[in-house]
Amino acid sequence: MVKKNSELKKIIIDCDPGHDDAIALLLAIKADNLEILGVTTVAGNSELHNTTRNARKILDYAGYPDIDVYSGCDRPMQRELFRLTGAIIHGEDGLGGPMLPPPVTPVKAEHAVDYLIRTLRDTEDRIILIVTGPMTNIAAAMEKAPDIKDNIDKIIVMGGAIFEPGNITSAAEFNIYVDPEAAKIVFGSGCELFLVSLDVTMKAMFFEEDIETLRNQGHKISVVVASLLDFFAETHVKHFGFKACPIHDALCVGILIEENLIEFKKTFVDVALHDPLTVGETVADLWGITGNMANCHIAMRVDREKFVRMICEHMKK
Q1: Residue 163 main-chain phi, psi, to 5 deg
Q2: Which of 199, 228, 235, 315 has the most CB atoms within 10 Å of its CB?
Q3: For residue 7, how many other CB atoms are within 10 A of its CB?
Q4: If we measure between CA atoms, which residue out of 89, 76, 82 comes closest to residue 20?
Q5: pLDDT digits (tens, 9 = 90+) for 68-106
Q6: Is 297 among the residues known to form the active site?
Q7: What is the mean pLDDT of residues 276-291?
């Protein structure tokens, strides 16, 4: 059942499941201090029909069919959908590994962009947006209804690479690369923005012993997460040369559970759009030399052990 309490942090999760998105959803469900108002899906790790089905699979399996899922944009704002790497890493349907039952709960008829606008306009509470895929839905909502920014408490984004190399090109991280125009709109929105980048997600790995700890807990959610990570780890061996799982997206939820999980620094960040070598790169003014006002909290350090404990403890609740 959806948790409802005036003291809970109100969140909307915009995602493209994806193994790490799926685990982020499960972590948010299990968190004692969060209320999920809705889940919106976008094309990214896989096509929209897959990411929408995968979100519903996870929510149904976890016993939360009352969390509404809204299907969103099926392609980036100005580009064709790039999905090769998503299929390689996450499987053809976006969620390779355990055979979860097909979803029973229907997707809502309202488009995700319209849901975001309606909810942000109608709520008395300021809402936290957790964005773990390309930012197409969020940017489209801002373009259509700029006033919604007044009710956004903060936006927590999984994306970008400031110090680390990219994971789709040498310069760019996948989520930003898929829809850089959308990312540029969100970075320029004036909203309080926290960027959980590859700089920390690649340092918060789950190793084989961590996966076994999850499996040995015996809870049905722990076991399915371990199975998801088995698949995820194998694809990392094949294509990146190491057997471990960076659960990128779950860190965005983790910092709402424990604020000191990640250390941030505020600076100005922009997104490269045009040069083929750098398109999708998140460019940070680390020395303050541009004169631009800081617009983004960038992740600097992460407590890996705390993150692993958090995942393990919440998956057996």
Answers
A1: -100, -35
A2: 228
A3: 6
A4: 89
A5: 999 999 999 999 887 655 566 666 676 877 889 999 999
A6: no
A7: 96
Predicted TM-score (pTM) above 0.85: yes
Helices (H), 242-289: 250-257
For residues 7 and 77, what is the distance between their CA atoms, to the nearest angstrom?
36
Length of the chain equals: 317
How far is the C-alpha of 96 from the C-alpha of 165, rounded, in Å? 26
Amino acid letter for position 301: R
For the chain, how long is the longest CA-to-CA vector? 54
Q: Which residue in 248, 274, 297, 314 is the catalytic one?
A: 248
Residue 222, token pair as written in the block: 């722990």
Q: Where are the beta strands (DSSP E) in the chain?
A: 9-15, 34-41, 69-71, 127-131, 152-158, 193-196, 205-206, 245-246, 262-267, 269-271, 282-284, 296-302
Percent of the chain whose pLDDT exceeds 70: 92
Query: Does domain 9-315 fall into CATH 3.30.1360.130?
Result: no
